[in-house]
């Protein structure tokens, strides 16, 4: 109903719509119209209210379900959550459809790799995508690479930002982090029940004020960019990507976009630390690390730090 109300008001922003007129068009009472207007105003929609009625002024940087036509039932929006991953896991266990998305304006306990905190200030894009892929378990890691590749290519082609991927799933711009990703998978017997990918993208927030090695879309472009357009495009790209059998071309394409290969790196896991030259990644994304004795160590996961 709020979407229909917004559609009417925003279609003619010069017009003042009376409560009676809106009530007639939408088939609800004038009191209901007033309540919906109040709710929209609380969500930062600028709607002028007066004795003659209501006039649309402007919309906020909104990521409400109605901002994603055709996907409304899949978008689960929250102003504040402990973390989108926790809520998405609960939904996935209850059998929600694939490509359901949990979004939060802010997270109280956003997580990065190795249980690090992910600062979730207002203006960023924080969401978890729920997937139910039908590919062998050994290939599941390709999906994370596909997600980072889709988002990096989106930033390049649609926003003109020279975004590059860092192993395994981070996205950097001029060596500063603009996006982080975290994946979690659950299985039933030998089959994957779901794979959740949590993404934190710095869009209209200003992370550099707290972290010198972070950057946002707004800081790069000098303007506010609608988060809904970024998320909508990302979901379109991921659906197209996952329609490809076995995701065979994801790793070769990812290699062309990475700034990790050929560099000295340190990879930290929960129990070990490895250093060496990042020579390659295998067909499922494991990092092939050349050590001091020239032996090759295959590293499957961890937090990667570029050292040179």
Per-chain topology:
Elements lengths: L1 H10 L7 H8 L3 H13 L3 E5 L2 E6 L16 E7 L2 H10 L6 E8 L17 E7 L9 H19 L4 E3 L3 E4 L2 E13 L2 E11 L15 H5 L5 H16 L7 H8 L6 E5 L4 E9 L5 E4 L5 E4 L3 E4 L2
Helix pairs in contact: 2-3, 5-7, 5-8
For this entry, give a set of tags.
8 helices, five-stranded antiparallel beta sheet, BirA Bifunctional Protein, domain 2, SH3 type barrels, about 300 residues
* Beta-strand content estimate: 25-35%
Number of domains: 3
Strand order of the largest sheet: 3-4-5-9-8-7-6
Q: Uncertain spans, ≥5 residues at pLDDT below 50?
A: none
| Structural category | alpha+beta
Give a verbal description of the structure.
The protein has 308 residues and is α+β, with helices and mostly antiparallel strands. The chain has three domains: 57 residues, Arc Repressor Mutant, subunit A (Orthogonal Bundle); 193 residues, 2-Layer Sandwich (BirA Bifunctional Protein, domain 2); 43 residues, SH3 type barrels, CATH 2.30.30.100. Helices cover 29% and strands 29% of the residues. The chain has eight helices and 14 strands. The strands form three sheets. Strands 3-4-5-9-8-7-6 form a seven-stranded mixed β-sheet, sandwiched between helices. Strand 8 and strand 9 form a beta hairpin. Helix 2 crosses helix 3, helix 5 crosses helix 7 and helix 5 crosses helix 8. The protein is elongated, with a radius of gyration of 22 Å. It starts with a helix and ends with a strand.
